[in-house]
Write a structure and sequence with these properties.
about 250 residues, alpha/beta, 8 helices, 7 strands, globular
């Protein structure tokens, strides 16, 4: 049955930035498909709601406090997941932050924290979890890119650079690992109503301009990511490598 290809029973996933928004939605989607999930956030207490949602599907939710900008935190997280589950089948690199300022005023400090969170952490997690997947002989890595992987944006130079890097890093890992039965792909969300886009949502002019350009006629919500993440985490995508899947309501087609 074709639907069996989308089942994830017995799999184990790591989802970074899993306390709310897109991360929470994707973590719950993986649990619905049969996955036990290690939930990562800088504040472990923020993960309780996500864990409770996952429990409804009789799946395990391991809550881990992890600052993805810290190499030691990543190492300790991977050790904890391996101790609890014995393997890692799926990695979703979702953690990310945003800083806004005109390009001529953008600070080094904001540049560094955005790049460390959005790009360097993705490299480290891909590399370190990928090493485990190589030993296992299989794995799925899903990075979260952005529409700004393809365009420049306004007042977000660090975010744009980091998400452009995520797209290229996805392709680089895919080139090396596709032959090893590890599929590395990315999802590029469009305009979603989340904490990261709060400034845009609350700006009546920009909100209207963005809404008018989206062919679907609305901003996305976390449920709109569920199908994409389950597809890329499942056997249904075994011949998909280095792809950036846009979930944008048609924004890029306009």
């Amino acid at each position: 049955m074709i639907l069996d290809l989308f089942r994830l029973d017995g799999k184990t996933a790591i989802v970074t930035g899993a306390s709310r928004g897109l991360g929470q939605g994707m973590a719950v989607a993986l649990a619905e498909a049969g996955t036990d999930v290690a939930l990562l956030s800088t504040n472990k207490s923020n993960l309780q709601q996500t864990a409770e949602l996952i429990a409804k599907y009789n799946r395990k939710a391991l809550q881990i406090s992890c600052d993805v900008t810290k190499k030691e935190d990543i190492k300790n997280t991977i050790d904890s997941v391996m101790k609890e589950f014995g393997r890692i089948d799926i990695l979703v690199n979702n953690a990310g932050i945003q800083r806004r300022a005109p390009a001529e005023e953008f600070t080094d400090e904001d540049w560094d924290i955005v790049m460390d969170t959005n790009l360097k952490s993705v490299f480290r997690l891909c590399r370190d979890v990928g090493n485990i997947m190589l030993k296992q002989g299989s794995g799925k890595i899903i990075n979260i890119a952005s529409l700004l992987s393809f365009s420049g944006g306004i007042t977000v130079p660090a975010y744009t650079a980091s998400k452009g890097g995520v797209a290229q890093l996805t392709k680089a890992f895919a080139n090396e690992w596709a032959s090893k039965n590890i599929q590395v792909n990315a999802i590029a969300p469009g305009y979603f109503d989340t904490d990261n886009t709060e400034a845009l949502v609350n700006d009546p002019v920009r909100n209207r301009q963005i809404s008018e350009r989206i062919p679907a006629g609305r901003w996305g919500n976390p449920n709109d990511m569920k199908g994409a993440v389950v597809f890329l985490a499942s056997s249904a995508s075994d011949y998909v490598n280095g792809h950036i899947l846009m979930v944008d309501g048609g924004w890029m087609a306009r």
